[in-house]
Amino acid sequence: MPLKRDRVLSFAAAAAGAVAAGAVNGLIGSGAGTVFYFVCRSLGKKGGDAGKDHFAAAMAAVLPISLLSLTTYPPAAAGDPNVLFTLILPGAAGGLLGAFLSDKMKSGTLSRIFAALTVFGGIYLILG
Amino acid sequence: MNFLDLWTLPAVFAVAVLTGTGVGGGGLLVLYLTVFFGTEQIKAQWLNLVFFISVSLTAVPYHLSKRRVSPGILALFVILGIPGMAGGYLLRRVLPGDVLRRIFGGFLTAAGAIAFGKRGEVRGEEESRRK
Known about the structure:
The structure holds two protein chains of two kinds. Chain A is mainly α.
């Protein structure tokens, strides 16, 4: 029954990926979306709008995990009005604009620039 | 963080747009906070979570309305992601901030390198299909 075995293996890989993504979120407060995305991309459908679907699934899954993760931190900046103006309002507006743009743009070049920035920043943090 | 800093609002807005489109961005905000503001790692992570939640509270309903999310996959990720998050939290409690910063840096480097590799792979497949 190779088909059933493949399904079981895919489920196990998705389950392991989900636990790993949660662990990354709990440990460093970000990165779960990246792990979820790679899991979806490896195991899910390919071509067409699949990339957008994988991203949407990853973002939707990270939201409740992030809400729970937030409660495990000391409220470092609670009561600081700057957080509202500098993070929450531009974050909400930018998120909505980004979601609309995701239907219209091809993100190839932007993704490569982003990947280069993350590699550079990561090395800086390791060495710094 | 300083509200009057001319660079902060555009930078945060740009990272939010990138996050909303799916290119990525949460990691960049932690990087921005730790490198340019000297924010300690734990506080930067907290601020990043607040930021990510505000981005996704507006972006996720849009994606859900486009029926891009499979409920089964979503349930699996959330149900198994929560115990994983608890494990990560327990580990975070015993690790010093400097170690967390290096782990975060290692994660960023690996994720960026994999993203680069995948892009190359996809482009190669597309080119061979065209030939």
